[in-house]
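haha ok so turns out i had the wrong file open the whole time. this is the CORRECT one, sorry everyone. sequence first:
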Amino acid sequence: GEHDIAAVVCTDTQADLEPDLYQLVTSAYLEDKPLFTLQCAMEENCLASQAYYEQANNPHWQQLTRRLLRFTTAIANIGTADFRPFIPKSAWEWHACHQHYHS
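then structure:
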């Protein structure tokens, strides 16, 4: 629209997150998992829309399987400042399934 504005803020310091691509590529594999074992992923909307359709419409949805791409990775901050998520830490949500906070 006519009132939309875009801007760039220049700074000498910033976070620069770099994933460990070697670790990601060398650890990647496919795994078939029954939907009943993916409750945490379902709660966090991490599955394809078809899984939610099956949950709503198929009385035997727990026996269906999903193929997952599994991998390990690490992310290094190679920048000159700490990484600061957009949401303040006080507003992060605890997820009991995975036993950690989400920002």
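The beta strands are 17-19, 29-34, 65-70, 75-77, 93-95, 100-102.
again sry for the mixup
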